[in-house]
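Re: that chain you flagged

S.,

Sorry for the slow reply, it's been a week of failed gels. I finally had a moment to sit down with the sequence you sent. For the record, here it is as I used it:
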Amino acid sequence: MEQQNDFTVRKQRRKKISVAIQIVILLVIAGVVINALWTLKAYQPYPPQSVAAAPDKGFVTLSYFGVARVGSQELIGVNRLREHLEGLKKQGYVTITQQDVAEYYERRKNLPDKSLMLIFEDGRRDTAIFAQKILQDLNYKATMLSYAEKFDNRDPKFLLPNDMQAMVKTTFWELGTNGYRLSFINVFDRYNNYLGEMEPLSFNKVAPYLKRRYNHFLMDYIRDEDGIPKESYNKMRARIAYDYETLRNSYTNELGFVPGMYILMHSNTGSFGNNDRVSALNEAWMKELFKMNFNREGFSWNRYNSSIYDLTRMQPQPYWYTNHVLMRIKYDINEDLEFVKGDMNRQQAWETLKGALEIQQETMILTSLPLDKGLTRLKNSTDFGDVKLTVRLRGNRLGQQKIYLRADANLSQYVAVSIFNNYLYVTEKTGGGEKELFRLNLDRHDGKPIISIPEHKKEAEIKELETFIQYADTAERAKIYAERLRVRQLEPAPTVDEGAPEFTPDLSVHAIGDRRLAIAMRANKISVMIDEKPAAQDLTVTAVKPGGVYLETTWGNYGWSQRNLADDVYDGVFEGLVITDNTGQDKENIRFDARLQGWEGIRYNLNKYWERLINWFIVNL
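Prediction finished late last night. Pasting the structure tokens below so you have them in one place:
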């Protein structure tokens, strides 16, 4: 009985400790949210003296899809967003308003030399929560766009009219619109199967099997599988008019006005649609309802020679570092900008020859030039011969992160290890051209199954039928799709072993990369490990003369993307780089170590683990 009482006491004590820890964490999270939302400041417009009389330099527009505490493939993390905007603030950029833009085009109003129009799309609630504090701290003003349809659905993920009115009262926000709804027409998969019209939920389920053969609701006639319109001109006109009229009524009823800024979905159509008659209708409606329209995407710079209804915006992606944004703007406006360097003490070990290098704690971010490379050299490394090197490569899979060893000053001799578009390469150069010694598909290294094109086509069609069943508008239609699904599941699909061609997936520009690379060089042999698994063993090299260490990043050419088609800059990310001698001793001499040491390293790792803990609770509570 006494043992049972002791057990009960211990159990209650553990429970109290657990509850106390949870309360502390919840209080911290509450503090984070309150700090993000609470503001006693008001936006202060740029001072008159910052306005340039001449020459006119136009304005830059950046548009973010959304913001989250932890970044994802679509939403930028709050820390990364702060880095972007702080980088622009240090360049001298001030935000301008919709009224500034209107007066710029209507009355040729002079703008500041470095004018920024800042936009957040899609009307997400988390965007407002996490961007508010940053806008307040930097005295930046932004436009929040929304879809009017979301007002009717009352989806808690999206801002409602009372939320938007409260945002406007803070003075850091204006309102705009992406339109009435996001919907897709004339959808085909990568195998040219006609999928027709799709709403966002169904579209997202089949998105992995699509390419770029689809359209947005207002861009064209609704067509059949042969491209023939399924609607007359009058029906098409009524369909488009319904969207604009419903948008106007929804905003007027809920907010009391229609926002002045519009972004027509999708961009880069040449005019206002993929069909002249559709374009003319869109143009008439937008000029009736809105003051301005962003009709293009990919470039950031707007000037007098554009129409206020044909503006362009750049959409920074969640994986872009600050110098990526600055590099894109620099080459859009054709003016010098000062790139972010980060830790200046650590910068002293490197000489950047091309592109821009930022160093954050243990991480080196080497940003390439557009359509070109980034290149940096480790100073005092001219005598590196037999070495071991370890590093974590966290740049995206589309693109190149390359390490040169035993390199001379002109890069006419070297041994190099690179990961380029998800392939591992070992190459060398000894005075002539670069010679490939080894190549490995990293999907093979990971043990991913090899499937044939017919197998992937079957997989796509099964997923599409399952989606049609889930979102069928009637039970009868769902039964029809279910029968088609049953038949398709029973149909055989030849494999690669049976002679069918292998399916090679397109590499998305947004595909996140994360590889642990280990290189060992000794005499005329080199071995490489990827993610702690042997990749190349004892390859023979002829470049045996000691030399320097260089890091290089290269744009990976155009990959598959549904947005930001003009992006031609690449961020190589080298984390925790360590280089030691390779003499065969138990303890090798360290030649370079990017890891933080002592209490600095302990604090860095504790902060990292604490952030992960907070993020886990925010995601899972």
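What I noticed first: Residues 518 and 532 are 8 Å apart (CA to CA).

Talk soon,
D.
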